[in-house]
Amino acid sequence: MPDPYGEQALLTPAMTKGYDAVPSEERQPLVRYLEAVVAARRAPVHTAVAFNAVYFGYDLNGDGYGGSPLRLDDFPVISLGEGAPALPVGAMVCVATGSDPLYAEIVHREGAHPEVGPLGDVPAWVSGAPAGAEGPGRPAGGSALRRRELLVPDLDVFGPALRLSQTQLHRLRTRRRRLNKDGHVIVDVTYSSPEAARRDDVTAYADHLLTAAREQLLSPFVPVSLAELVGGTGEDGLRAGLLGLLDTVRAVLLSSSSLRTWGHYAVTRASLTECWGDTGPLGGDDLRSLAAAVEHAATPARRRHGLTTPVTVYTAVGPWLRQVPGAAELLAGVGYAAAVCRANLTLADVVRGDSDQGLFENGCRVTLDDAFESGGIWRSLHPGGSQLPGDPLTPAGRGWASTLPAPLEQQAGAEPEADVDPVDQPLADDADLGPWELLRDDAEEVVWRSPLRLAHLMDGWFPLHPHVLSELRRSHGPRLRARLELDHAGRTGSAQQAGQDVTAELGEASGRLSGIVWPYDFFPGLFLELCWPRGGTVIRAATTRLKETLQVDERVIGHCYDPRVLTREDAPGSDRHGDSAVGLGPRQLVMRAVRRCGLLTLDGHALLDRSVLPSAVYGRRPARLQTAVLEAAVAELLAERRLESALGSRDARGQPHHPARHGQPVIPLIGYRPERRRVIRPWADAEPVGSGVLPLQFVAGHLRRLRPGCSPSPVQRAAFRDYCRRLGKADGWELPYGYTFVTGHIRGR
Questions:
Q1: Which of 164, 202, 373, 648 is most buried, judged by most C-beta within 10 A?
Q2: Total number of domains constituting the chain
């Protein structure tokens, strides 16, 4: 069985670049180890917990993290019913007990809203509500965002030496001073910003490791250090490498044929089969009852004349499970996390197998509405045929959305206009978008930089700097034939594109080069550095390579670019062949409107007043059906994190602002944030590996457990000291007992 401290390191440098960059032969040991971890743990294994296991060296023989490098005194202290910093799943904590400290790993986390009923009944506004929401349609009123959360700690992960006896644990649960009756911790968490509260589990855990748990992350006693894997201790490199490792671990869990996943949680298929065959509490019969209850929750009672009343019901999984007779002890400790995961998987299987995108034969539509609050909240709607179909397992937050103020025309009861075709909206006032930057103006040349715009690509032209315009017009008149030389760094284009005869149109107020044939891979926002040697008619334009190739949404980018121009002018429906919204689907129309009309930040983040979305898409007041279609598309994009919610304000002139300004009415915004990630070998410029030849692989320096009776050589002790110096750990000179150090080397033939 693979072991993090075994002969072969389970984490490799390639894994810091994400799952797709990892050769299959490097994945297999990690797959086998994580499958064993999931089978050994009583709780479902979250991506963050799986990362902990392989990075900090979870021992499968019963010691857990007992022999790990973790410094217990560095753990944050939490206590039942008190305030606490945000603690993501995977965080190592100390639970205050009043006597001996209790160390644990957080394996499950969920919202614990007090208004959830004992039978799982939930007020609509709770489902999908943002942190700090105070009531229906009322987001957080103050600067501090507080949310009550339930944390499930695994108290057995640090081995027998730190494990409580059953008597001690029973005493703590009975007194309910440090743990509640189920052995869980309920805390009031304060978030620094709405963005922090909305972070997904993996990003939140990466932030935790790089800040509060940084000493643990960079310990020289882990099997293989992140700093060694990425080749340095720079902040950007550590963050990118850590996110790459988490992506690899997540994808490995998804790829395993012996595991099932619910969100970021993984369980074995064998444990699910065993649960579904169990006839006791929380077994197959109870889970089938839960599925039936959710399916029929909204089925209304018939009136005397056969009429029905539309009904929407929200059911929370955790409270529903707690009311099952005989389930109390099974839901104690990590058993609660396991039961919640199995229940959600059962509901998901029923929805997938017995309904048409959530619509059942009885006319009820069942969808997941909130994946975080109270173990997950499912929405039952009858009649469900009127709701537009979509992925029923993507949390839509319709409960909270239903309590937000309706658009003005709906409030006034105005009749909808006939369907109209979407029209293009003029850009927001972006006069400063993509300005030129003068880099040098001396006796020999004029050099400036400016981003390529969509209009330049469509019509084959590029503006001239005013200094160049004035001198060329003075010496050559209003028009001349010029030469444009393109140098696309790192790429080879045709000779015709590299050197082109173009026309310089030199007006009194502005000038430009026209008749340009742009290379196929040029895109809006690409920075061009232009140079005009004085006295000549040749203008040179060059691009600049990025240090690391990026993928921004669907576009792979290897050269410097302006993110604001990319957001505005690379929106759906825009390319060098045209710029139109005709033919776009609802999701593309929403994304186009937010990117083209929203407030724009320097990093390319666009924010749009949600109430003006329909008019931004269709140009005038749309029909009600069109508005409903857009809202469904927004809900899907928010659930997929392609868009995000935010709060702003509106001034007396009707202009939106972000962040919200004091004294102005608060308004909901929807935002587009470009998704950026590193790309490996984007243009396939590396030679393929020949058949039957193993590629060379760099193995980072790592710790290895020794067989009993063996000891490390003086050479390896000295190598470990050098390794510690590279990590900046002046307090970690000697190898831990029972381990040796394997220096970095090249493996392969």
A1: 373
A2: 4
Which residue from 651, 648, 653 is spatially nearest to 664, judged by alpha carbons? 651
Whether residue 541 contacts residue 530, with contact meaning beta carbons closer than 8 Å, is answered with: yes
Q: Rounded CA gap, 470 and 457, in Å?
A: 25
Same domain, 598 and 661: yes
To the nearest 10 degrees (0 to 180), the angle between helices 624-639 and 586-597 is: 80
Those residues whose C-beta lies under 8 Å from the C-beta of residue 404, and which sit 6 or more positions away, are: 137, 668
**Is 317 part of any domain?**
yes
Range of the domain at 719: 697-747
Cα–Cα distance measured from residue 555 to residue 746, given in angstroms and rounded to the nearest whole number: 34
Contacts of 574-577 spanning 24+ positions with Cβ under 8 A: 574/454, 574/524, 575/457, 576/454, 576/457, 576/458, 576/518, 577/458
CATH number of the domain encompassing residue 500: 2.40.330.10
Give the C-alpha separation, 275 to 313, whole Å.
27
Are the beta carbons of 375 and 367 closer than 8 angstroms?
Answer: no
- Residue that finishes a domain, picked among 559, 587, 606: 559
Please count the other Cβ atoms lying within 10 Å of the Cβ belonging to residue 690: 8
* Rg of the chain on CA atoms, in Å: 30
Dihedral class, residue 270 (left if φ above 0, else alpha if ψ from -120 to 50, else beta): alpha
pLDDT along the chain (749 residues), means of 10: 84 91 90 96 96 94 80 73 77 76 90 81 90 83 79 89 70 68 87 83 92 88 90 88 94 94 95 94 95 89 54 94 94 95 96 90 92 94 76 88 59 34 39 76 90 93 92 91 87 61 90 91 93 93 87 88 92 87 86 91 87 84 80 88 87 84 88 78 38 56 83 85 77 77 68
The two three-digit tokens of residue 725, written as one number: 């110096």
Tokens 């944050």 locate to 76
Q: List phi, psi (to 5°) of 296.
A: -105, 5
Sole residue written with tokens 């006597």: 99
Contact 479, 511 (CB under 8 A): no
* CA-closest candidate to residue 52, choices 238, 334, 189, 242: 242
The span from the CA of 284 to the CA of 165, in Å, is 31
User: What DSSP line would sit under 675-693, residue for residue?
Assistant: -EEE-SSTT--SPPPPTT-
- Structure token pair of residue 310: 């539309």
The answer to whether the beta carbons of residues 534 and 444 sit under 8 Å apart is yes
Read off the DSSP letter of residue 137: T
Q: What are the tokens at 734?
A: 């000697």
Q: Does some domain include residue 509?
A: yes
**Residue 172 belongs to a domain:** no
Nearest to 184 by CA among 269, 283, 107: 107
Q: Give strand pairing partners of 147.
A: 189
Percent of the chain as helix, strand, coil, to the nearest 5: 30, 25, 45
Q: b/e for 300-335, b at 16 or more Cβ within 10 A?
A: eeeeeeeeeeeebbbbbbbbbbbebeebeebbbbbb
**Residue of 184, 138, 112 whose CA lies nearest to 372:** 112
- Cα–Cα distance for residue pair 392/295, rounded to 1 Å: 13
CA distances from 541 to 488, 515, 518 (A): 8, 15, 11
Tokens 């039961």 -> residue: 339
List strands edge to edge, sheet with 656-657.
599-600, 606-609, 666-672, 644-650, 656-657
Give the 3-state secondary structure of residue 749: coil
At what angle are helices 24-40 and 47-56 packed, to 10 degrees?
110
Three-class secondary structure of residue 355 per DSSP = coil
